[in-house]
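Dig into my protein:

:::
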Amino acid sequence: MSLTTLIEVLEFNRTRTLSFIDTIAKQPNPQVVLGWRPGPGRSHIAWQLMHIAATDDRHLHVRAQQGQPQEARYVERFAGGSTPDDDVPALDEIRRYLAAQRQELLNFVRGLDDGALSRKANEQMPWTFGDWLKVLAWHEAHHQGQAHITFNLYRVAHDPVVGVTAH
């Protein structure tokens, strides 16, 4: 797999996630939808989406570049190992963070060459660049899917006539 192909996959996945956010924006009360949980202690839709962006932030700035996250407060609240809280970010903030962190990641990756796919960024990085980019692509699809099923459960819980349909 080439670097160009992996970049295309990352770009495609993010357009699907942003399209999902557009679907939520069309709801009568998007903020309520974003904060809905399928059960006590479970992640709300906003957490799933912010988790995707916080993972990009942490993976790029901390793991690959061995620095600090760009938005440490979000990495602390939404990266792996965090516990979802009830402070639900606004739709525009979620969209901004997703777009900004993916752009940061793509800018970094575009500076690599295909030979980098078989190398690690550093000794602390658990994957080669090639595997790392595949993990990030899979990670986004996984959590976007969780957000999507949570949205479908929300819709059924609030309007059983709607049913579950693909968007």
Summary: The longest helix spans residues 129-158.
